[in-house]
Amino acid sequence: MNSEPGKPDSPPAALLLRRIAHLDMDAFYASVELLRYPQLKDLPVVIGGGRQHIQNALAALRAADLANADPAEPETPWDAQAQRAALRRIPLEAFARLSEYTGRGVITTATYAARQFGVGSAMGLMKAAKLCPQAILLPVDFEEYRRFSRQFKAIITEIAPLMEDRGVDEVYIDFTDVPGGQREGGRVLARLIQKTIFEATGLTCSVGVAPNKLLAKMASEFNKPKGIAIVHERDLETLIWPLACRKINGIGPKADAKLKSFGIETIGQLAQRDLAWLVQTFGNKTGAWLHAASHGRDERPVVLDSEPVSMSRETTFERDLHAVRDKANLSAVFTRLCEQVALDLQRKGYQGKTIGIKLRYDDFKSVTRDLTIDHFTADAKTIRHAAGQCLKRVPLERRLRLLGVRVGALRKTAEAQLLDTNSGVAHKKIDSSAIHSIAFTDQLF
DNA sequence: TCTGGGGTCCTTTTCCTT
DNA sequence: TCTGAAGGAAAAGGACCC
Protein backbone atom coordinates (compact mmCIF):
# COMPACT_ATOMS: atom_id res chain seq x y z
CA MET A 1 0.00 0.00 0.00
CA ASN A 2 2.71 2.51 0.96
CA SER A 3 5.16 3.68 -1.66
CA GLU A 4 8.57 2.06 -1.65
CA PRO A 5 11.09 4.07 0.33
CA GLY A 6 13.91 4.04 -2.21
CA LYS A 7 11.92 5.27 -5.18
CA PRO A 8 13.00 8.74 -6.25
CA ASP A 9 9.70 9.95 -7.76
CA SER A 10 7.30 8.79 -5.03
CA PRO A 11 6.30 11.49 -2.60
CA PRO A 12 6.68 10.58 1.10
CA ALA A 13 3.93 8.20 2.17
CA ALA A 14 2.43 10.75 4.52
CA LEU A 15 1.51 12.99 1.60
CA LEU A 16 -0.27 10.31 -0.36
CA LEU A 17 -4.03 10.46 -0.16
CA ARG A 18 -5.91 7.26 -0.70
CA ARG A 19 -7.36 7.68 -4.18
CA ILE A 20 -9.75 5.01 -5.37
CA ALA A 21 -11.40 5.22 -8.77
CA HIS A 22 -14.58 3.62 -9.93
CA LEU A 23 -14.87 3.27 -13.69
CA ASP A 24 -18.19 2.53 -15.31
CA MET A 25 -18.66 2.04 -19.04
CA ASP A 26 -21.39 4.27 -20.52
CA ALA A 27 -24.41 2.25 -21.77
CA PHE A 28 -22.06 -0.62 -22.39
CA TYR A 29 -24.15 -3.22 -24.24
CA ALA A 30 -25.95 -0.65 -26.37
CA SER A 31 -22.67 1.05 -27.27
CA VAL A 32 -21.13 -2.22 -28.37
CA GLU A 33 -24.17 -2.94 -30.54
CA LEU A 34 -23.97 0.53 -32.08
CA LEU A 35 -20.37 -0.17 -33.08
CA ARG A 36 -21.65 -3.20 -34.95
CA TYR A 37 -24.77 -1.52 -36.38
CA PRO A 38 -23.94 2.19 -36.68
CA GLN A 39 -27.11 2.74 -38.69
CA LEU A 40 -29.13 2.22 -35.50
CA LYS A 41 -27.83 5.41 -33.96
CA ASP A 42 -30.78 7.59 -32.85
CA LEU A 43 -33.31 4.78 -33.46
CA PRO A 44 -35.17 3.12 -30.60
CA VAL A 45 -33.34 -0.13 -29.93
CA VAL A 46 -34.00 -2.60 -27.18
CA ILE A 47 -31.57 -5.35 -26.24
CA GLY A 48 -33.05 -8.41 -24.63
CA GLY A 49 -34.87 -11.60 -25.20
CA GLY A 50 -33.01 -14.82 -25.47
CA ARG A 51 -32.94 -17.96 -27.45
CA GLN A 52 -36.51 -17.58 -28.69
CA HIS A 53 -35.60 -14.33 -30.37
CA ILE A 54 -32.53 -15.69 -32.11
CA GLN A 55 -34.44 -18.75 -33.22
CA ASN A 56 -37.22 -16.57 -34.60
CA ALA A 57 -34.71 -14.47 -36.49
CA LEU A 58 -33.03 -17.56 -37.89
CA ALA A 59 -36.38 -18.99 -38.95
CA ALA A 60 -37.33 -15.73 -40.64
CA LEU A 61 -33.97 -15.74 -42.31
CA ARG A 62 -34.38 -19.22 -43.64
CA ALA A 63 -37.87 -18.41 -44.83
CA ALA A 64 -36.60 -15.39 -46.70
CA ASP A 65 -33.65 -17.37 -47.96
CA LEU A 66 -31.28 -14.74 -46.72
CA ALA A 67 -29.07 -17.20 -44.93
CA ASN A 68 -25.60 -18.07 -46.07
CA ALA A 69 -24.59 -21.52 -47.21
CA ASP A 70 -24.43 -23.21 -43.80
CA PRO A 71 -27.37 -22.22 -41.63
CA ALA A 72 -27.28 -23.50 -38.06
CA GLU A 73 -28.64 -27.01 -37.91
CA PRO A 74 -32.30 -26.44 -37.12
CA GLU A 75 -32.89 -29.79 -35.44
CA THR A 76 -30.22 -29.65 -32.75
CA PRO A 77 -31.38 -28.44 -29.38
CA TRP A 78 -30.21 -24.99 -28.40
CA ASP A 79 -26.52 -24.83 -29.10
CA ALA A 80 -25.30 -21.44 -27.96
CA GLN A 81 -22.05 -21.62 -29.85
CA ALA A 82 -23.56 -22.42 -33.23
CA GLN A 83 -26.39 -19.96 -32.80
CA ARG A 84 -24.03 -17.18 -31.92
CA ALA A 85 -21.96 -17.86 -34.99
CA ALA A 86 -25.14 -17.68 -37.03
CA LEU A 87 -26.11 -14.51 -35.25
CA ARG A 88 -23.11 -12.72 -36.70
CA ARG A 89 -24.47 -13.29 -40.17
CA ILE A 90 -27.99 -12.15 -39.55
CA PRO A 91 -28.72 -8.92 -41.37
CA LEU A 92 -30.37 -6.31 -39.27
CA GLU A 93 -33.64 -6.50 -41.22
CA ALA A 94 -34.20 -10.05 -40.06
CA PHE A 95 -34.58 -9.03 -36.43
CA ALA A 96 -38.13 -8.56 -35.41
CA ARG A 97 -39.67 -5.32 -34.44
CA LEU A 98 -40.57 -5.47 -30.81
CA SER A 99 -44.24 -5.67 -31.81
CA GLU A 100 -43.64 -8.93 -33.68
CA TYR A 101 -41.94 -10.66 -30.81
CA THR A 102 -43.75 -13.39 -28.97
CA GLY A 103 -42.18 -15.06 -26.00
CA ARG A 104 -40.81 -14.44 -22.57
CA GLY A 105 -38.02 -12.20 -21.62
CA VAL A 106 -36.99 -8.87 -20.20
CA ILE A 107 -35.16 -5.89 -21.56
CA THR A 108 -31.51 -5.95 -20.63
CA THR A 109 -30.93 -2.43 -21.81
CA ALA A 110 -32.37 0.14 -24.18
CA THR A 111 -30.91 3.00 -26.18
CA TYR A 112 -31.74 6.55 -25.21
CA ALA A 113 -34.12 6.87 -28.13
CA ALA A 114 -36.06 3.87 -26.81
CA ARG A 115 -36.04 5.13 -23.24
CA GLN A 116 -37.97 8.18 -24.38
CA PHE A 117 -40.94 5.89 -24.87
CA GLY A 118 -40.73 4.78 -21.27
CA VAL A 119 -39.09 1.43 -21.80
CA GLY A 120 -36.10 0.49 -19.70
CA SER A 121 -34.05 -2.25 -18.11
CA ALA A 122 -35.86 -5.14 -16.45
CA MET A 123 -39.17 -4.37 -18.13
CA GLY A 124 -41.02 -7.33 -19.65
CA LEU A 125 -40.78 -7.44 -23.44
CA MET A 126 -44.55 -7.71 -23.83
CA LYS A 127 -45.09 -4.53 -21.88
CA ALA A 128 -42.30 -2.74 -23.76
CA ALA A 129 -43.90 -3.75 -27.07
CA LYS A 130 -47.04 -1.81 -26.10
CA LEU A 131 -45.05 1.31 -25.29
CA CYS A 132 -42.75 1.26 -28.30
CA PRO A 133 -43.80 -1.34 -30.89
CA GLN A 134 -41.49 0.03 -33.58
CA ALA A 135 -38.34 -0.50 -31.50
CA ILE A 136 -35.82 -2.90 -32.95
CA LEU A 137 -35.14 -5.85 -30.70
CA LEU A 138 -31.57 -7.13 -30.71
CA PRO A 139 -30.64 -10.32 -28.91
CA VAL A 140 -28.10 -10.13 -26.09
CA ASP A 141 -24.64 -11.14 -27.26
CA PHE A 142 -22.67 -11.66 -24.06
CA GLU A 143 -19.77 -13.19 -25.92
CA GLU A 144 -19.19 -9.94 -27.73
CA TYR A 145 -19.60 -7.78 -24.60
CA ARG A 146 -17.09 -9.94 -22.77
CA ARG A 147 -14.62 -9.50 -25.61
CA PHE A 148 -14.79 -5.70 -25.24
CA SER A 149 -14.71 -6.10 -21.48
CA ARG A 150 -11.40 -7.95 -21.59
CA GLN A 151 -10.04 -5.33 -23.93
CA PHE A 152 -10.78 -2.27 -21.82
CA LYS A 153 -9.63 -3.99 -18.64
CA ALA A 154 -6.31 -4.88 -20.25
CA ILE A 155 -5.87 -1.21 -21.12
CA ILE A 156 -6.54 -0.17 -17.54
CA THR A 157 -4.07 -2.60 -15.97
CA GLU A 158 -1.40 -1.40 -18.39
CA ILE A 159 -1.80 2.06 -16.94
CA ALA A 160 -2.81 1.30 -13.34
CA PRO A 161 -2.18 -2.31 -12.32
CA LEU A 162 -4.23 -2.42 -9.10
CA MET A 163 -7.65 -3.12 -10.59
CA GLU A 164 -10.63 -4.93 -9.12
CA ASP A 165 -12.97 -6.57 -11.58
CA ARG A 166 -16.61 -5.81 -10.73
CA GLY A 167 -18.35 -7.45 -13.62
CA VAL A 168 -18.50 -6.93 -17.32
CA ASP A 169 -18.65 -3.13 -17.40
CA GLU A 170 -17.12 -1.77 -14.21
CA VAL A 171 -13.95 -1.84 -12.16
CA TYR A 172 -12.33 -0.23 -9.15
CA ILE A 173 -8.80 1.05 -9.56
CA ASP A 174 -6.37 2.04 -6.80
CA PHE A 175 -4.75 5.28 -7.99
CA THR A 176 -2.92 5.93 -4.71
CA ASP A 177 0.54 4.76 -5.68
CA VAL A 178 0.33 5.17 -9.44
CA PRO A 179 2.61 8.00 -10.49
CA GLY A 180 0.29 10.83 -11.49
CA GLY A 181 -2.63 9.28 -9.64
CA GLN A 182 -2.65 12.14 -7.13
CA ARG A 183 -2.59 14.98 -9.64
CA GLU A 184 -5.73 17.09 -9.54
CA GLY A 185 -7.16 14.55 -7.13
CA GLY A 186 -6.93 11.80 -9.76
CA ARG A 187 -8.43 13.70 -12.68
CA VAL A 188 -5.30 13.52 -14.83
CA LEU A 189 -5.02 9.75 -14.60
CA ALA A 190 -8.78 9.32 -15.10
CA ARG A 191 -8.56 11.39 -18.30
CA LEU A 192 -5.69 9.29 -19.60
CA ILE A 193 -7.62 6.09 -19.03
CA GLN A 194 -10.76 7.43 -20.68
CA LYS A 195 -8.81 8.60 -23.71
CA THR A 196 -6.87 5.37 -24.11
CA ILE A 197 -9.99 3.23 -23.87
CA PHE A 198 -11.84 5.40 -26.36
CA GLU A 199 -9.02 5.31 -28.89
CA ALA A 200 -8.68 1.55 -28.68
CA THR A 201 -12.35 0.56 -28.57
CA GLY A 202 -14.54 3.52 -29.52
CA LEU A 203 -16.32 3.21 -26.17
CA THR A 204 -16.74 5.87 -23.53
CA CYS A 205 -16.80 5.57 -19.76
CA SER A 206 -17.28 7.60 -16.61
CA VAL A 207 -14.89 7.73 -13.69
CA GLY A 208 -15.30 8.78 -10.09
CA VAL A 209 -12.27 9.25 -7.86
CA ALA A 210 -12.64 9.41 -4.07
CA PRO A 211 -10.96 8.28 -0.86
CA ASN A 212 -12.73 4.90 -0.96
CA LYS A 213 -14.82 2.53 -3.06
CA LEU A 214 -18.15 3.63 -1.59
CA LEU A 215 -17.71 7.28 -2.57
CA ALA A 216 -15.95 6.50 -5.85
CA LYS A 217 -18.92 4.41 -6.94
CA MET A 218 -21.32 7.27 -6.26
CA ALA A 219 -18.99 9.78 -7.89
CA SER A 220 -18.79 7.87 -11.17
CA GLU A 221 -22.50 8.54 -11.65
CA PHE A 222 -22.26 12.28 -11.15
CA ASN A 223 -21.33 13.35 -14.68
CA LYS A 224 -22.40 10.47 -16.89
CA PRO A 225 -21.71 9.98 -19.77
CA LYS A 226 -18.00 10.59 -20.40
CA GLY A 227 -17.78 12.18 -16.98
CA ILE A 228 -15.11 12.55 -14.37
CA ALA A 229 -15.97 13.46 -10.79
CA ILE A 230 -13.51 14.01 -7.99
CA VAL A 231 -14.73 13.68 -4.41
CA HIS A 232 -12.74 14.49 -1.29
CA GLU A 233 -13.60 13.83 2.33
CA ARG A 234 -14.52 17.47 2.79
CA ASP A 235 -17.22 17.16 0.09
CA LEU A 236 -19.31 14.75 2.15
CA GLU A 237 -21.92 17.23 3.35
CA THR A 238 -22.29 19.11 0.07
CA LEU A 239 -22.08 16.31 -2.51
CA ILE A 240 -23.13 13.13 -0.72
CA TRP A 241 -25.60 14.02 2.01
CA PRO A 242 -28.25 15.49 -0.31
CA LEU A 243 -28.44 12.22 -2.28
CA ALA A 244 -31.18 9.63 -1.80
CA CYS A 245 -30.23 6.63 0.36
CA ARG A 246 -30.77 4.42 -2.68
CA LYS A 247 -27.58 5.88 -4.17
CA ILE A 248 -25.53 3.92 -1.64
CA ASN A 249 -24.37 0.73 -3.29
CA GLY A 250 -25.97 -1.96 -1.14
CA ILE A 251 -29.21 -0.17 -0.27
CA GLY A 252 -31.82 -1.74 -2.52
CA PRO A 253 -35.59 -1.35 -2.71
CA LYS A 254 -36.28 -3.21 0.54
CA ALA A 255 -33.81 -1.37 2.73
CA ASP A 256 -34.84 1.91 1.13
CA ALA A 257 -38.51 1.30 1.90
CA LYS A 258 -37.67 0.50 5.50
CA LEU A 259 -35.58 3.65 5.83
CA LYS A 260 -38.39 5.70 4.31
CA SER A 261 -40.83 4.25 6.84
CA PHE A 262 -38.74 6.00 9.49
CA GLY A 263 -38.73 9.22 7.48
CA ILE A 264 -35.17 8.75 6.26
CA GLU A 265 -34.95 9.80 2.62
CA THR A 266 -31.45 11.17 2.15
CA ILE A 267 -27.99 10.03 3.15
CA GLY A 268 -27.73 13.15 5.28
CA GLN A 269 -30.84 12.15 7.23
CA LEU A 270 -29.39 8.69 7.67
CA ALA A 271 -26.20 10.22 9.03
CA GLN A 272 -28.23 12.04 11.70
CA ARG A 273 -29.33 8.75 13.28
CA ASP A 274 -27.05 7.42 15.95
CA LEU A 275 -25.28 4.10 15.76
CA ALA A 276 -27.23 2.52 18.62
CA TRP A 277 -30.58 3.20 16.97
CA LEU A 278 -29.40 1.85 13.61
CA VAL A 279 -28.02 -1.31 15.19
CA GLN A 280 -31.21 -1.86 17.13
CA THR A 281 -33.36 -1.30 14.03
CA PHE A 282 -31.33 -3.04 11.34
CA GLY A 283 -29.22 -5.53 13.25
CA ASN A 284 -25.58 -5.49 14.23
CA LYS A 285 -23.90 -5.74 10.92
CA THR A 286 -26.27 -3.77 8.72
CA GLY A 287 -26.73 -1.07 11.34
CA ALA A 288 -23.00 -0.47 11.72
CA TRP A 289 -22.57 -0.52 7.97
CA LEU A 290 -25.36 2.01 7.38
CA HIS A 291 -23.81 4.30 9.95
CA ALA A 292 -20.35 4.13 8.40
CA ALA A 293 -21.65 4.47 4.85
CA SER A 294 -23.71 7.55 5.62
CA HIS A 295 -20.55 9.18 6.99
CA GLY A 296 -18.62 8.24 3.87
CA ARG A 297 -16.45 5.69 5.64
CA ASP A 298 -15.39 2.53 3.84
CA GLU A 299 -12.13 0.67 4.38
CA ARG A 300 -12.61 -2.14 1.88
CA PRO A 301 -9.45 -2.72 -0.13
CA VAL A 302 -9.30 -3.02 -3.89
CA VAL A 303 -9.25 -6.78 -4.41
CA LEU A 304 -7.13 -7.87 -7.35
CA ASP A 305 -8.32 -11.39 -7.85
CA SER A 306 -11.01 -13.32 -6.08
CA GLU A 307 -11.97 -16.97 -6.22
CA PRO A 308 -15.48 -17.92 -7.26
CA VAL A 309 -17.74 -19.29 -4.51
CA SER A 310 -20.27 -21.06 -6.69
CA MET A 311 -21.20 -21.70 -10.29
CA SER A 312 -24.70 -22.23 -11.57
CA ARG A 313 -26.88 -22.59 -14.62
CA GLU A 314 -30.57 -21.90 -14.77
CA THR A 315 -33.21 -21.55 -17.41
CA THR A 316 -36.70 -20.15 -17.70
CA PHE A 317 -39.00 -22.27 -19.84
CA GLU A 318 -40.92 -20.97 -22.82
CA ARG A 319 -44.07 -22.04 -21.00
CA ASP A 320 -44.57 -23.29 -17.47
CA LEU A 321 -43.96 -27.00 -17.16
CA HIS A 322 -45.69 -29.57 -15.01
CA ALA A 323 -43.60 -32.10 -13.08
CA VAL A 324 -45.73 -35.03 -14.17
CA ARG A 325 -47.12 -34.07 -17.56
CA ASP A 326 -43.82 -32.64 -18.82
CA LYS A 327 -41.64 -35.11 -17.05
CA ALA A 328 -39.52 -36.12 -20.05
CA ASN A 329 -38.93 -32.54 -21.08
CA LEU A 330 -38.03 -31.44 -17.55
CA SER A 331 -35.73 -34.34 -17.04
CA ALA A 332 -33.82 -33.57 -20.22
CA VAL A 333 -33.42 -29.91 -19.24
CA PHE A 334 -32.33 -30.93 -15.76
CA THR A 335 -29.65 -33.22 -17.12
CA ARG A 336 -28.45 -30.58 -19.54
CA LEU A 337 -28.12 -27.99 -16.78
CA CYS A 338 -26.01 -30.43 -14.77
CA GLU A 339 -23.81 -31.07 -17.80
CA GLN A 340 -23.40 -27.35 -18.39
CA VAL A 341 -22.36 -26.65 -14.80
CA ALA A 342 -19.96 -29.60 -14.92
CA LEU A 343 -18.44 -28.23 -18.12
CA ASP A 344 -18.13 -24.75 -16.62
CA LEU A 345 -16.35 -26.20 -13.58
CA GLN A 346 -13.99 -28.30 -15.69
CA ARG A 347 -13.22 -25.49 -18.07
CA LYS A 348 -12.33 -23.14 -15.24
CA GLY A 349 -10.55 -25.78 -13.16
CA TYR A 350 -12.86 -26.06 -10.14
CA GLN A 351 -14.60 -28.75 -8.15
CA GLY A 352 -17.35 -28.32 -5.59
CA LYS A 353 -19.06 -30.33 -2.90
CA THR A 354 -22.33 -28.52 -2.22
CA ILE A 355 -24.83 -29.23 -4.96
CA GLY A 356 -28.11 -27.40 -5.09
CA ILE A 357 -31.20 -26.78 -7.16
CA LYS A 358 -33.47 -23.81 -7.62
CA LEU A 359 -37.09 -23.88 -8.71
CA ARG A 360 -39.37 -21.04 -9.59
CA TYR A 361 -43.08 -21.79 -9.64
CA ASP A 362 -45.68 -20.24 -11.89
CA ASP A 363 -46.52 -17.81 -9.08
CA PHE A 364 -42.91 -16.61 -9.21
CA LYS A 365 -42.10 -17.96 -5.75
CA SER A 366 -38.71 -19.68 -5.59
CA VAL A 367 -37.32 -22.45 -3.47
CA THR A 368 -33.83 -23.88 -3.17
CA ARG A 369 -32.52 -27.14 -1.82
CA ASP A 370 -28.93 -28.22 -1.46
CA LEU A 371 -26.88 -31.14 -0.39
CA THR A 372 -23.25 -31.39 0.64
CA ILE A 373 -21.64 -34.60 -0.54
CA ASP A 374 -18.52 -36.19 0.92
CA HIS A 375 -16.11 -35.35 -1.87
CA PHE A 376 -15.34 -32.58 -4.37
CA THR A 377 -16.58 -33.13 -7.89
CA ALA A 378 -16.94 -31.61 -11.33
CA ASP A 379 -18.60 -34.69 -12.78
CA ALA A 380 -21.94 -34.27 -14.52
CA LYS A 381 -23.31 -37.63 -13.37
CA THR A 382 -22.38 -37.01 -9.74
CA ILE A 383 -23.93 -33.56 -9.88
CA ARG A 384 -27.04 -34.91 -11.55
CA HIS A 385 -27.42 -37.57 -8.88
CA ALA A 386 -27.06 -35.17 -5.94
CA ALA A 387 -29.31 -32.61 -7.62
CA GLY A 388 -31.85 -35.38 -8.11
CA GLN A 389 -31.80 -36.03 -4.37
CA CYS A 390 -32.52 -32.35 -3.78
CA LEU A 391 -35.42 -32.43 -6.22
CA LYS A 392 -37.11 -35.11 -4.12
CA ARG A 393 -37.34 -32.70 -1.19
CA VAL A 394 -39.34 -30.06 -2.98
CA PRO A 395 -43.09 -29.78 -3.60
CA LEU A 396 -43.96 -30.33 -7.27
CA GLU A 397 -47.68 -29.63 -7.44
CA ARG A 398 -47.42 -26.22 -9.05
CA ARG A 399 -46.17 -25.68 -12.57
CA LEU A 400 -42.54 -24.63 -12.90
CA ARG A 401 -41.24 -21.67 -14.81
CA LEU A 402 -37.55 -21.99 -13.96
CA LEU A 403 -35.11 -24.69 -13.07
CA GLY A 404 -31.49 -24.19 -11.97
CA VAL A 405 -28.52 -26.20 -10.78
CA ARG A 406 -25.73 -24.82 -8.64
CA VAL A 407 -22.43 -26.14 -7.32
CA GLY A 408 -20.85 -24.37 -4.35
CA ALA A 409 -18.09 -24.85 -1.77
CA LEU A 410 -15.59 -24.71 -4.60
CA ARG A 411 -11.89 -25.41 -4.65
CA LYS A 412 -9.40 -25.27 -7.48
CA THR A 413 -8.36 -28.58 -8.97
CA ALA A 414 -4.75 -29.63 -8.42
CA GLU A 415 -3.96 -29.06 -12.09
CA ALA A 416 -5.43 -25.56 -12.05
CA GLN A 417 -3.38 -24.69 -8.95
CA LEU A 418 -0.25 -25.89 -10.66
CA LEU A 419 -0.97 -23.72 -13.69
CA ASP A 420 -1.41 -20.74 -11.38
CA THR A 421 1.96 -21.08 -9.70
CA ASN A 422 3.67 -21.39 -13.04
CA SER A 423 2.14 -18.39 -14.79
CA GLY A 424 0.35 -16.26 -12.26
CA VAL A 425 2.59 -13.40 -11.19
CA ALA A 426 3.76 -11.87 -14.44
CA HIS A 427 0.69 -9.87 -15.41
CA LYS A 428 0.63 -7.91 -12.18
CA LYS A 429 4.04 -6.36 -12.71
CA ILE A 430 3.85 -2.65 -13.19
CA ASP A 431 4.73 -1.54 -16.69
CA SER A 432 6.75 1.53 -15.88
CA SER A 433 6.86 2.85 -19.43
CA ALA A 434 3.09 3.17 -19.49
CA ILE A 435 3.11 4.89 -16.15
CA HIS A 436 5.75 7.43 -17.06
CA SER A 437 3.67 8.61 -19.97
CA ILE A 438 1.33 10.12 -17.41
CA ALA A 439 3.73 13.02 -16.99
CA PHE A 440 2.82 14.26 -20.45
CA THR A 441 -0.93 13.94 -20.31
CA ASP A 442 -1.94 17.31 -18.98
CA GLN A 443 -3.10 18.70 -22.31
CA LEU A 444 -4.80 15.57 -23.50
CA PHE A 445 -8.41 16.75 -23.36
C1' DT B 1 -49.02 -7.36 -16.35
C1' DC B 2 -44.65 -8.94 -16.22
C1' DT B 3 -40.83 -10.16 -14.03
C1' DG B 4 -33.38 -13.24 -17.37
C1' DG B 5 -29.19 -15.22 -15.78
C1' DG B 6 -25.18 -15.44 -13.03
C1' DG B 7 -23.30 -14.25 -9.06
C1' DT B 8 -22.14 -12.66 -3.65
C1' DC B 9 -23.24 -12.01 0.97
C1' DC B 10 -26.08 -12.01 5.01
C1' DT B 11 -29.67 -13.70 8.23
C1' DT B 12 -32.57 -17.07 10.00
C1' DT B 13 -33.82 -21.73 10.62
C1' DT B 14 -32.85 -26.42 11.21
C1' DC B 15 -30.27 -30.16 12.49
C1' DC B 16 -26.63 -32.55 14.78
C1' DT B 17 -23.45 -33.21 18.58
C1' DT B 18 -21.92 -32.77 23.13
C1' DT C 1 -34.37 -42.45 27.24
C1' DC C 2 -35.64 -37.80 28.13
C1' DT C 3 -34.65 -32.82 28.65
C1' DG C 4 -32.33 -28.71 27.93
C1' DA C 5 -28.61 -25.68 26.77
C1' DA C 6 -25.10 -24.32 23.68
C1' DG C 7 -22.46 -24.14 19.60
C1' DG C 8 -21.42 -25.18 14.92
C1' DA C 9 -22.42 -26.59 10.33
C1' DA C 10 -25.55 -27.04 6.81
C1' DA C 11 -29.68 -25.61 4.65
C1' DA C 12 -33.03 -22.21 3.19
C1' DG C 13 -34.37 -17.80 1.99
C1' DG C 14 -33.77 -13.28 0.54
C1' DA C 15 -31.57 -8.82 -0.66
C1' DC C 16 -28.70 -6.96 -3.74
C1' DC C 17 -25.65 -6.24 -7.83
C1' DC C 18 -24.30 -6.24 -12.86
Task: Offer a concise description of the structure.
With 445 residues, this protein is an alpha+beta fold. The protein has helices at residues 28-36, 51-63, 80-87, 112-115, 125-131, 142-159, 187-201, 213-219, 236-240, 253-261, 267-272, 275-282, 284-294, 327-348, 380-391, 414-423, 432-436, and strands at residues 20-25, 45-48, 107-110, 136-138, 163-165, 170-174, 205-210, 228-230, 310-321, 350-361, 366-377, 400-412.
Work out the helix count: 17
Q: Round the Cα radius of gyration to an integer and report it.
A: 25 Å
How far is the first residue's CA from the last residue's CA? Answer: 30 Å
Structural class: alpha+beta
Q: Report helical residue fraction.
A: 25-40%
Spatial shape: globular
Query: Kindly state the mean pLDDT as a whole number?
Result: 84
User: What percent of residues are in strands?
Assistant: 15-25%
Helix and strand run:
EHEHHEHHEHEEHEHEHHHHHEHEEHEHH
Biggest sheet: strands side by side, in what order? 5-6-1-7-8
Query: Could you describe the largest sheet, including whether it forms a barrel?
Result: 5 strands, mixed
pLDDT below 50 for ≥5 consecutive residues: which ranges? 1-9, 66-79, 424-445
How many β strands by DSSP? Answer: 12
Keywords:
445 residues; alpha+beta; 12 strands; disordered N terminus; disordered C terminus; DNA-binding
